[in-house]
Every structure is written in C-alpha cells, then in structure tokens.
Amino acid sequence: MTTSIIIYKGNLRTEAVHNRSGQTIITDAPIDNNGKGEAFSPTDLLATSLGNCMLTIMGIVAGRNQLDIEGTMVDITKVMAENPRRVAEIIVEFKMTGKNYSEKDRTLLENAAKTCPVAKSLHPDLKQTISFNY
Question: Facing residues of 76 across strands?
C-alpha cells in the first residue's frame, strides 16, 4: 500500500491524504515564493517533520525508561537559502521546563532526538541546530 496520495488543487495548493488513516494535510506555496502562505509549505513540513520525529523517538525512549516528557514543546525555525533555493538550516529548540531530569536522563533523551530517522535522512549540508532548555 502506498503511504499517501497527493492532489494538486490549483493556485499552488496541494492536498495530501494519508492512506491508512484518511487524515489530510493542505500545503500552500509560501508568500516569498508566489504563494498565499495560508497553510504549511512543503519546506515548512520538512522542518516540522524533524521536530515531530525527534519528539516521537524521545517518547519511545521515555516510555522505556519511565520518563515523563508530556508537555514538551519544540519551536522550529526554518532558514532558507538561495541559489539553489533550499532549506539551509533547521533550528530546533526544545522546551522541557518543569521536569527534573538527571544528567543521565537528559543524555538519553537528547541522543534519542538527534538520532531520529528524519534527522539521519536529511542531507549533511542541511544544518541542524538543536538546543534543549530544561
């Protein structure tokens, strides 16, 4: 089974349907690239997927080690470059305040985040700047 089906809706908008669940994602071209910017752009999704993946893998590791990461937030900043137009950097800022993690637990969670499948799938030229705020 394919993962998703993507339909071009016109006016630089797409609709992606996740085949297993039926959930949809709408994308628009960003304002700085002829779009309306009314939804995530494809490059926004790329950057956001890194944070989603990191949190998911951290959740798996946290569950195995009886750690509570519920409420953890991540701010994602996408930095674009020109010639060629591409994502040059993704800044990932974890906000893990209100929890008292040991140094061992912090190392465990941070390593989980940095080794998530999306992080390991991105080209090495795409800079990943990651910070953890406890």
Answer: 92
User: Which residue range(s) make up the domain with 79?
Assistant: 42-133
Q: pLDDT of 10-55, one tens digit each?
A: 999 999 999 999 999 999 999 999 999 999 999 999 999 999 999 9
Does the global pTM surpass 0.85? yes
Q: What residues have CB less than 8 Å from 127, skipping those under 6 apart?
A: 79, 88, 89, 90
- 31 touches 44 (CB < 8 A): no
Could you give phi then psi for residue 87, rounded to 5 degrees? -80, 120
Dihedral sign (CA 109, 110, 114, 118): positive
Q: Rounded to 5 degrees, what angle do the CA atoms 5, 76, 83 make?
A: 75
Residues 61 and 122 placed together within one structural domain of the fold? yes
